[in-house]
Amino acid sequence: MKLDGVAVLGVGMTRFGVYPEKSNQDLAREAGLAALADAGLGFGEVDEAFVGYIFAPPMTGLKAMKELGLTGLPVTHVENASASGLVAFREAAFAVASGRCDVALALGFDKMTEAGGGTAPGRDVIDSVILPAAYFSLWAMRRMHERGTRPEHFARIAAKNWNHGALCPWSHRQAREPVTPEQVLASRKVAEPVTTMMTAPVDDGAAAVVLARKDFVKKRHPDRPLVVPVASALKSECYTPGHTFLGPVVGPASMTRDTARQAYEEAGLGPEDLSVAYVHDAFASEELEYYELLGICAEGEAEKLVEEGATSLGGRIPFNTDGGLVARGHPGGPTGLAQIHEIALQLRGEAGPRQVDGARVALAHLVGGGSVCDVEILVRE
Amino acid sequence: MSRVPIEPGFFTVPDDPAEAPRLLGSRCTACGEHFFPRRVVCAKCLHLGCDDVELGPDGTLWTFTWVYFPLFGSRRADDAGYGVGQIDLPEGPRIQCVLRGGFGDYAIGMPMRLELEALREDAEGREVVIHRFAPTGGAPA
To answer: Which of A257, A295, A364, A372 could bridge to A368 as Cys pair (CB 3.0-4.6 Å)?
Structure first.
């Protein structure tokens, strides 16, 4: 089924950060109310909701939704690791596109600061020896071996995202002075060649997106440019030669290429059409790989792209204008919805100092453990 | 001291500590593809039916890193960090696991051999072990 006749009606989020005094329900209420206010909508008009989180206990999505009201609407939990928020968005968009409802809410929240206490039983014991930082560093080390990539390339990407984050009110990390690649390289090492400043922080937060039928959105906000989801692709792993089953954090890198290709085909657009892109930079080294896997440049050209500053604000194709996972943050469930939040502002021309001139086509990408990859493409109409 | 695996079903623990362990894998009875760990349905051709096989102990280092944290679940005295790598087995699977040695000991393409690392003692005084690969001392291919 194609995504058809759907538009973003409103977006809202909390600033990502460390909130020991707030519960998941508190964060969800804040983000949900912000999105409803932006949509110009009362909760009573929401027909259906999709809730994404990773770390909170079962039922938390239903409990969080009660913070907004008890209207009897269907609430569906969506858990797809780091991609949960984007998949909640996808399901909400299809719920509207299918004609099943007129208005759907996608809500994500998490408190990663309270996750990871205690060891999971069974198979996870042998699996838990390889940390995400180690896994993505394995990619980075192989890349350095094959392409001569230097840690400076990863550091430049991290510094860019820190500096983008400083311009974004919802970003967890907001450096007072411009961050340099040298500072990034000098921060504590996590796993060769990745340093703490190349790594997403551990944080809490929530984000929400309201989707509705296009005519509904036009009527509610006649003066706003329409933000329209045009393609959604979600894939799990395809078997590859030399496949790794035990201990990996996400599947083969080709997942991103395959998922993006499917989304581009569905949208009738290509990487050359993108104005702005948002990717899973839980580790800045990943972002470099995604430049190629998303087709932004040819294989082996990603380092040149970094050296040219092409993916910084003001460059040819800015990536992670809100700071990405490295700066804006990565609580888990809300991460993908924060990407859509920033995309909506960019396509509406409301991104302030981060505005990409004439932004027309945007891509959001997340990978998640297990493994999944989700790519969403939105356009301004 | 008797040795027990961190979890059963992934590798052998030979009675003789000098003997190399093997990985417990599968081979599809239809297409012959090898897997680690064990599977019931072939991941390549979807055939229902795999034979149990033992894989390793020899492989080649595909990539590696050094983690600057103590090894999770280990009482290793050396907490300066640990190596992690992906090792290609001649049978096909790529194994992701802990490595023996220091960061400077590794090079992509070097021959590696499977062994066991003692993580800690369990409540019954047995040594809890996990599989790891170690450089054989051979040159990278």
So the answer is: A372
Residue B105 maps to a domain: yes
Interface test with B, best of A123, A127, A139, A141 (most B CBs within 10 A): A141
Is A244 in Cβ contact with B96 (below 8 Å)? yes
Nearest CA in chain B to A191: B67
Contact list, B23 vs chain A (CB under 8 Å): none
Q: Provide the number of structural domains found in chain B.
A: 1
Query: Over its length of 381 residues, how does chain A's per-residue pLDDT go in tens digits?
Result: 788 899 999 999 999 999 999 999 999 999 999 999 999 999 999 999 999 999 999 999 999 999 999 999 999 999 999 999 999 999 999 999 999 999 999 999 999 998 864 434 333 467 767 788 899 999 999 999 999 999 999 999 999 999 999 999 999 999 999 999 999 999 999 999 999 999 999 999 999 999 999 999 999 999 999 999 999 999 999 999 889 998 777 888 899 999 999 999 999 999 999 999 999 999 999 999 999 999 999 999 999 999 999 999 999 999 999 999 999 999 999 999 999 999 999 999 999 999 999 999 999 999 999 999 999 999 999
Beta bridge partners of A372: A236, A368
Is B141 a member of any domain? no
Range list of β-strands (E), chain A: 6-13, 48-52, 75-78, 103-111, 189-191, 194-195, 204-213, 227-236, 276-278, 361-368, 372-380
Tell me which residue range forms the domain holding B45. 3-135
Torsion angle in degrees (nearest 10) through CA of B131, B134, B138, B141: 70
Question: Hey, which residues does A186 pair with through a beta bridge?
Answer: none
Chain B residues in contact with A130 by the CB 8 A cut-off are: 84, 96-97
The domain defined by A6-114+202-220 folds into Peroxisomal Thiolase; Chain A, domain 1 (3.40.47)
Vertex B16 angle, CA B11 and B17, to 5° = 70
Contact A138 B84 (CB under 8 A): yes
Contact A191 B65 (CB under 8 A): yes
Contact B93 A244 (CB under 8 A): yes
What residue ranges in B43-125 does DSSP mark as E strands? 50-55, 58-67, 82-88, 94-99, 111-121
**A126 interaction partners in chain B (CB closer than 8 Å):** 6-7, 10, 130
ipTM metric: 0.94
A295: left (phi over 0), alpha (psi -120 to 50) or beta: left
Closest chain A residue by Cα to residue B90: A242
Facing A125 at nearest CB: one of B6, B67, B97: B6
Domain assignment present for residue B41? The answer is yes
